[in-house]
Design goal:
This protein is α+β, with helices and mostly antiparallel strands and 265 residues long. It has seven helices and twelve strands. Strand 11 and strand 12 form a beta hairpin. Helix 1 packs across helix 3.
């Protein structure tokens, strides 16, 4: 069995990813550069960069779940999702267009955003705990990106790269989780007025609440807690859609509302 990466090599990988994001110059897959990398290494590399950003003034706004569909898990050769952090410097706005050139290979995904009103337990967190702690759900778009060249990723590449997350925006509407069936929210994504994707919330592990409970249990192993006020993105309800300069996106989630995101050059 190949040994895990040394602390110095983890730091080197984290620095390479940080430089790729800063300079918008993607790097080769980490699994090629560091053949011994495993999932534990990848999460530690992610955390190195998160801690660096926090030290420079960013704050944790929440977390995102990736690989929450069976098809994506099979493609990556894994049997569970992964996760990344949502930081204050990743929050984008419906009212202010985002520069597409600020990213390497931007894509968008529609999600059901969870806003926590209470801190979740870690180990042993259940779906019931999630529903009790959720203040509201909201329509959300996650802006994803890969600092790995040509989106040539496998599980360790994306985990180390903050689960390929780059930004997020919530629409203005808030709905109590008891007021709709969280497994049966139909969603449509329009790009410049044309429908480009459809999906339903049960694409996320059969129920997005399951993804949030999984996340609470998973991050507890790394000493992380999902806290009151955090936003949790449980996973996309459809395949990711490429972003082009000048695109205007609108996501419509039945019973939940709408959310928009626009891009300039």
């Amino acid at each position: 069995m190949v040994a895990m990466l040394s602390t110095d090599v983890r730091r080197e990988a984290a620095a390479a990813l940080a430089a790729a994001e800063r300079d918008r110059r993607p790097i080769p897959p980490l699994r090629e550069t560091h053949p011994g990398i495993d999932v534990v290494d990848a999460y530690e590399i992610q955390l190195l960069n998160i801690r660096q950003r926090l030290a420079h003034g960013a704050e944790v706004h929440g977390h995102k779940v990736g690989l929450s569909s069976r098809a994506m898990q099979e493609m990556m050769g894994v049997d569970e999702p992964d996760y990344g952090h949502l930081l204050s410097d990743m929050a984008v706005s419906e009212d202010r267009p985002v520069s597409a050139s600020h990213y390497c290979y931007p894509r968008v995904e529609v999600e059901v955003g969870f806003i926590l009103g209470a801190t979740l337990p870690g180990e042993g967190c259940t779906e019931r705990d999630v529903l009790a702690a959720t203040e509201a759900v909201a329509p959300a778009i996650e802006l994803i990106d890969s600092r790995i060249r040509d989106w040539d990723i496998r599980i360790c590449d994306t985990i180390a790269d903050n689960a390929s997350s780059a930004g997020y925006v919530l629409g203005p509407d808030r709905v109590k989780p008891d007021d709709l069936d969280l497994r049966a929210i139909d969603a449509r994504l329009l790009r410049n007025g044309e429908r480009v994707a459809t999906g339903r919330s049960d694409a996320v592990l059969g129920d997005p609440v399951i993804a949030v409970a999984w996340l609470a249990r998973k991050v507890a192993a790394f000493g992380v807690t999902l806290e009151a006020g955090h936003v949790i993105l449980p996973g996309s309800v459809h395949r990711a859609i490429d972003v082009r300069a000048g695109d205007d996106f609108e996501a419509v989630l039945d019973g939940l509302g709408t959310v928009r995101l626009s891009f300039t050059d």
